[in-house]
Each structure stands twice: as C-alpha cells, then as structure tokens.
Specification:
- The protein has one domain.
- It is an alpha+beta fold.
- The chain has a 5-stranded mixed sheet with strand order 1-2-3-4-5.
- It is 19% helix and 20% strand.
C-alpha cells in the first residue's frame, strides 16, 4: 500500500478544520450511518471529551502520513482507511463525501484507483448511500 499511495514520512498531522469522517463514516455507538453528518459535529466535536471509542481511536490514512499534506480528506472528498479483508487481502476504503460521491472527479483519488489497479491493493469506494464500488486487479466490478 505504501508504494501505491506514497507514505510521506514522519510528520505530525492533525485534523485541523477537517471533519469529513464525522459525515462520511458510520459511528455504531451513536447509531449514525455513513453519509450522514453527526449531530455532535459543529465545526468540531461537541462531545469530544466523551466521544465514542470508535471516534477516539480512529486515524485516517492521511493522519498516518499517507499522501501529500494538500490532500487532506476535506480537500479530496474522501476519508481513506486501510482494512484487511480475510478473503481479498489488503484494501483501501474510500468513504466519500455525500456531496462529492465520485472519486473520479478528483485527480488525486482517481490516480490512486488507477495505481491500485496495477497492484494487489483493492479499493472499495463507499458513497453516502452505502453503495459500494470495488476495484480489484485490473477490472472494476
């Protein structure tokens, strides 16, 4: 994965103004689905000190140093997460901003999909309606 996406190296990153994970991703403890803005998100987290474990422990790939600084999730429209699928192996999940559900509209995200098609990393794109598009190998399905 690091070859495909380009880990930038050791650097400290913080969310800054980005709160896209609060909309794009589900929070089971709050019974919040993908693609719906969290009721506690108001420019920052209204329950930060008491936020659910899934929120407190979450770090997107950008926070982990993957990709250039300018490609923060709120800039690209996608929160990227690395997951291991027991059957398919390593996958990058793109949780899309419901207002920008097509990763091919962003050159950075589209480039990642194309690069992954030539690797053993699968891409799963989850839009705001929970529809998924899976890219693996050289053929989208």
């Amino acid at each position: 994965m690091t070859v495909v996406m380009g880990r930038v190296g050791p650097q400290v990153r913080d969310c800054g103004e980005c709160t896209l994970c609060c909309t794009a991703m589900a929070v089971p403890e709050l019974d919040k689905a993908n693609g719906i803005k969290c009721e506690h998100e108001c420019g920052n987290c209204g329950i930060y000190a008491e936020r659910p474990t899934s929120c407190a422990s979450f770090e997107c790939l950008w926070l982990q140093g993957v990709g250039p600084i300018a490609m923060r999730p709120d800039k690209t429209g996608a929160v990227l997460v690395s997951e291991i699928d027991k059957i398919k192996g390593e996958a990058v999940v793109m949780y899309m901003d419901p207002e920008r559900p097509d990763p091919k509209q962003n050159n950075y995200l589209h480039g990642m999909i194309l690069a992954c098609l030539d690797s053993d990393v699968h891409i799963v794109v989850v839009d705001g309606t929970n529809d998924q598009t899976i890219y693996e190998g050289r053929t989208p399905r």
